[in-house]
Design brief:
This protein is mainly alpha-helical. It has helices at about 5-30, 35-40, 45-50, 50-75, 75-95, 100-130, 135-160, 165-170, 170-185, 200-225, 230-250, 265-295, 300-330, 330-350, 355-385, 390-425, 435-460.
């Protein structure tokens, strides 16, 4: 399949891909704020209701690689439409769920659909749009994703408060139906190479278990304790299944992941850089609400406004970064953005109980601006480094590594903050401690985030410059 040259078709397809990214991202942020209401509705505790989020995340991460491979084998159009249809059906079922068990089960259905559309969305941009527009299109997609991040808590809170929690799922249904109809109408027919091979079912099952048993303890380690038998056992199981997966892939005639992908230095370094920057960004985003509410004493509503600031500046910088990438390449922008992000993490480490509002706003704004500058060139570099016939796998590997980086960020920075705070307060219950006693924990965690950004910049130095649109007519 060659890139489409009809500007109208390009815009419609970009809108579809961006809508898919928006819905999948929104569904990870809109639900969190409704969990207490859902728990009360079903008369269950927060531990059980947390599976409404965890089940979705585990399936999303675990199936992404399999869905990327299916895209290469069966065609992006088929997988994208099927993913959107399954996601829409899952949303309807979630809204109709009459018990917490059914809600968790239907969130699994939603996660399957989200995995399909998230895995191949970036690859579809690389396939359907001309190379000289790739960075710009990825910047637009990142803008839409950041809009979903910013809108999720606000929209979820409003719907839960004034309508019903059921409608945080029902809202997806009409949008999903329209998207499926447009995808059927406008996405080009798939041209699948005869040499596509078979689907590696065993490899897909092994990596699903390997990722699930890795992400579960990273998500739950702070709550259950890092040395608890469940957490340690999960890590051991993950290590075992990763080993089995690698052995199987090396022996399989048609592996789920062709390890030759990583022989491309740009693909390897680009993915590592993306993982470390997400580690920093996701970890700090996880901690900031606690800083604003516990240290500053702000309400949830005011905290939400502060947290929307980086999302807004990310929206502004994403398309600009895409244009710069198309013209000048990825390496320099990635290095500069990572260094600015590192400087911002240092500014975060200066936050205390009396930091002025202008300083807070400036630091948050620059953080979003830096991430917005980093993501489009990074994604463009990665997608431009993979082989055309494995675009789905290259895209899904990238998205999986980013998800793992985000989960690592929450686990590592969260653990650092809690460990330092507990040592500072001397066993006192954290929420009862005086705000100044909490500051050292946040400061230590933000400095770890700064280190991750500096590692990102160092990794980016190994990238060999390439321009997606070099030589292309503008």
């Amino acid at each position: 399949m060659q890139a489409l040259h009809n500007p109208t078709s390009q815009k419609i397809i970009l809108a579809l891909i961006s809508l898919a990214a928006f819905m999948a991202t929104l569904d990870t942020s809109i639900v969190n704020i409704s969990l207490p209401t859902i728990a009360d509705s079903f008369h269950v505790d927060m531990g059980l209701v947390s599976w409404v989020v965890l089940a979705y995340l585990l399936v999303l991460a675990g199936l992404m690689l399999a869905c990327g491979k299916l895209g290469d084998l069966a065609g992006f159009r088929r997988v994208f439409i099927a993913g959107f249809a399954v996601f829409t059906l899952g949303s309807l079922l979630c809204g109709l769920a009459a018990s917490i068990g059914l809600l968790v089960a239907f969130r699994v259905v939603q996660g399957i659909g989200a995995a399909a559309i998230e895995a191949i969305a970036p690859a579809m941009i690389a396939l359907y749009l001309p190379a000289e527009k790739r960075g710009w299109a990825l910047g637009i997609m990142m803008t839409i994703v950041s809009l979903a991040i910013a809108a999720g808590p606000v929209l979820g809170g409003y719907i839960t408060e004034f309508v019903s929690w059921h409608w945080i799922f029902f809202i997806n249904v009409p949008i999903g139906i329209v998207a499926v109809i447009l995808a059927i109408r406008y996405l080009p027919a798939d041209i699948v190479p005869k040499s596509a091979g078979r689907f590696d079912g065993l490899g897909a099952a092994l990596i699903l278990v390997a990722l699930a048993t890795l992400i579960y303890p990273l998500n739950q380690g702070l709550d259950l304790g890092w040395t608890s038998p469940v957490i340690v056992g999960s890590f051991v199981a993950s290590l075992l299944f990763w080993g089995l997966f690698i052995v199987h892939e090396r022996r399989c005639a048609a592996p789920l992941i062709d390890m030759r992908l990583f022989l491309s230095g740009n693909y390897l370094w680009g993915n590592l850089a993306g993982m470390f920057i997400l580690l920093s960004f996701a970890g700090t985003e996880f901690l900031l609400p606690f800083y604003f509410e516990l240290v500053r004493g702000y309400s949830t509503e005011i905290t939400g406004i502060f947290l929307a600031i980086p999302a807004v500046t990310l929206m502004l910088s994403g398309p600009v970064a895409g244009r710069i990438t198309d013209k000048f390449g990825s390496r320099g922008l990635m290095i500069g953005a990572a260094l600015v992000a590192g400087a911002t993490m240092y500014l975060y480490s200066l936050f205390d109980a009396t930091t002025g509002t202008p300083f807070l706003v400036l630091a948050l704004a620059v953080a979003g601006f830096a991430i917005g500058l980093f993501m489009p060139p990074n994604m463009s570099l990665i997608l431009g480094s993979g082989r055309h016939e494995e675009g789905g796998v290259a895209s899904s590997v990238m998205m999986t590594i980013r998800n793992v980086g985000a989960v690592l960020g929450v686990a590592i920075l969260g653990t650092v903050a809690v460990t330092v705070i507990l040592a500072t307060v001397g066993g006192q219950y954290v929420v009862d401690a005086a705000p100044p006693l909490l500051v050292p924990g946040f400061r230590a965690a933000f400095l770890v985030g700064m280190a991750a950004c500096l590692i990102t910049a160092a990794i980016s130095f190994f990238i060999k410059e390439q321009r997606a649109g070099a030589g292309a007519a503008k």
